[in-house]
Amino acid sequence: MKEIELKLQGKLKRLTNRTFKFDERVGEGWFSAVYFLKTRDIIKEFRPNTVVTMQFFQKEHAVLCGTDEVIALLQTFAAHPEDLEIHSLRDGDMISPFETVMTIKGRYEDFGYLEGVIDGILARRTSVATNVYNVVQAARSGREEKPVIFMGDRDDHFTQQAGDGYAAFIGGTIGQATHAMNEWWGKSGMGTMPHALIQMFGGDVVEAARAYHHKFPEDDLLVLVDYNNDVITDALRVAREFGPTLKGVRVDTSRTMIDQYFIRHPEVLGTFDPRGANAPLIFALREALDAEGFEHVKIVVSGGFDEKRIRSFEAQNVPVDMYGVGGSLLRITIGFTGDNVELNGKPEAKAGRKYRPNPRLERVELTAQEVVELKN
Description:
Elements: E1 3-7, E2 19-23, H1 34-46, E3 51-57, E4 62-63, H2 67-77, E5 85-88, E6 94-95, E7 102-107, H3 108-111, H4 115-139, E8 148-150, H5 161-171, E9 175-176, H6 195-200, H7 205-215, E10 221-224, H8 231-242, E11 246-251, H9 260-264, H10 279-291, E12 298-302, H11 307-315, E13 322-325, E14 337-343, E15 346-347, E16 362-364, E17 373-375
Parallel strand pairs: 8-9, 8-13, 10-11, 11-12, 12-13
Antiparallel strand pairs: 1-2, 1-17, 3-7, 3-14, 4-6, 5-7, 5-16, 14-15
Helix pairs in contact: 4-5, 4-11, 8-10
């Protein structure tokens, strides 16, 4: 399989530095519903040069994402893209239910078969961007704004990472877990250690941290402390070992596990759920670190966090400094619809749909299709 890499030279400055990669089989109709392909062939024979206006919308309050990708798609795979008249909102725009986010006017046979592909791009990117935005707002709902790291590499197919990472960036995360997630917006992946590194050192968190710091001395030392299901004990061990060099600890306790702190202190158990990285455990961890003079050590939590759980933490003023969030950000909850609403400049649409002008849309001009680089 080959990929087509395109750096779009469009009218809007937002497009000139974005690099998207597409499977070249998009142009062969491989990813389009067969009825769109059949319609294209019928129109070519029976209604050639029919001009339609295709309009896209969705039904939620959302953060729009995917428009640049769609425009690049049209530049790459539409026949005669320079003849298309495109109006679009921008990635990152806040949109309302049923608001028109994009219109494409041109000959149906030039671009109509891409309708479903466009819907899918907008649906996935907008869903992820909106999910991230809501989580980021939740992390800002307390006394301080807490950054969010996108850790969705294990929650979906790896081929989605670049687009999901870009959508997460649009939604407001400060960093992503993999290099691929950063590909479309020019950064590098960030992260420290997994449980596997600690396992390689026989479960000795200090030894694993020592090896990490030796190998990557320029990195901020952030140590994972839940491997032995005793986060306070292990956090204090690494804090005593590294002192001011230790920048933070991460708690990633499974939602099926109860930390050893509660086994040693059953008197603190009450009506709360003691499993996972819960609020009382984080309060106890902060207190233990501060009691030994490690106020500088930040606390990062991850593992099953979503908007609701983060809002609960912030409402309780849980002393978290950063959230790592994964799977909850990848739920596809927003669907887009593309409709042909004008035929040769006159209103023509299925019942219940009509052309809805949106003064917020900006004109996007595409050039004649340029030579693109084919990569093996």
